[in-house]
Q: What sequence folds into this?
């Protein structure tokens, strides 16, 4: 196999963690909304932690993206 | 709709922007300055945008704190919201002892937030590459220095305040002794990976966001010049850009917030190492 082709396949494989990130974000949004709907008065207390968790989860996908970029451009 | 006209003139209009999604991260010297070709101290577009960021925050907070009133006007209340927001965060994570770190956390938050936000400004069309909008935080060296700064402060402050007691950070209380050989290396690795994860999180968010924006912009150009029905549906990625832009505003704030709050949590470790 061509080295160039292997590079592109590797970059594609490197972004597979997005699967987990998608699952995680979906679960998180769902849980947040169900918590917020069950007890609307607690929503303001949940929002801050929710956004931290959102950013931390999202960052995992971006780490994968950085690895893909490293494979592609270096 | 005369598509022939669009096809004829659009490639020329798009040319300054069409050098690919990674071109925006290029560092262009404005005033070249180097010593023997070994040390490069050029004033670059990155330096220019850092200066713009610092100037903007200086201007904003000077305006906000000028002629303070009991019933604040527009600018003063914006400044107060920013102050209260960070002050509340520092109070919630570190308590009253954390007040000494407030200026540091506030500066860090303001700098990162304004870097992220001003990086979203559109460039002036036709301006030279050195004056294109530049996101300082999309370079890992900048975010890594910021991360090293906060973790370095944690280490230095912890060692000064607690001496060797700071090393209790790596041996959590309440863990049975036979588990220590396992826990201590894990704690050390987790501590060492803090600056890396802080830096890469901010850098990757900014990089990915701006690449996505430019890729969508590229779709518009490609579809518009493709002719026929494709030119008409180029409106779809155009609206996509608006949506991604909204998300980027959220991310710009959120990443500055996450960086600041994680710094607070790490500083809390320096205040009370034996958790």
A:
């Amino acid at each position: 196999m061509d080295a160039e082709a292997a590079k592109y396949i590797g970059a594609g494989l490197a972004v597979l963690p997005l699967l987990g990130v998608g699952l995680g974000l979906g679960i998180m949004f769902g849980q947040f909304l169900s918590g917020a709907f069950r007890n609307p008065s607690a929503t303001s207390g949940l929002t801050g932690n929710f956004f931290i968790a959102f950013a931390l989860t999202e960052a995992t996908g971006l780490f994968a993206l950085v690895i893909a970029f490293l494979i592609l451009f270096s | 709709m005369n598509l022939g006209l669009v096809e004829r003139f659009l490639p020329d209009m798009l040319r300054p922007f069409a050098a690919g999604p990674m071109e925006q991260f290029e560092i262009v010297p404005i005033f070249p300055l180097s010593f023997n070709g070994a040390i490069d101290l050029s004033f670059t577009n990155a330096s220019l945008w850092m200066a713009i960021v610092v100037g903007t925050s200086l201007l904003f907070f000077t305006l906000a704190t000028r002629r303070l009133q009991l019933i604040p006007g527009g600018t003063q209340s914006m400044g107060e919201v920013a102050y209260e927001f960070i002050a509340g965060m520092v109070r919630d994570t570190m308590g009253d002892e954390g007040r000494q770190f407030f200026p540091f956390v506030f500066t860090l938050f303001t700098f990162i937030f304004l870097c992220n936000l001003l990086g979203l400004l559109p460039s002036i069309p036709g301006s030279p590459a050195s004056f294109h909008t530049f996101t300082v935080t999309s370079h890992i060296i900048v975010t890594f220095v910021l991360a090293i700064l906060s973790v370095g402060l944690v280490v230095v402050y912890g060692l000064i305040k607690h001496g060797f007691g700071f090393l209790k950070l790596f041996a959590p209380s309440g863990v049975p002794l036979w588990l220590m050989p396992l826990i201590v290396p894990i704690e050390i690795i987790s501590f060492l990976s803090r600056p890396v994860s802080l830096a890469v999180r901010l850098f990757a968010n900014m990089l990915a966001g701006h690449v996505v924006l430019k890729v969508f912009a590229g779709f518009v150009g490609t579809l518009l010049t493709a002719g026929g029905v494709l030119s008409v549906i180029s409106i779809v990625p155009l609206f996509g850009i608006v949506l991604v832009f909204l998300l980027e505003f959220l991310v710009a704030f959120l990443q500055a917030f996450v960086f600041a709050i994680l710094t607070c949590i790490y500083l809390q470790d320096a205040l009370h190492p034996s958790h």
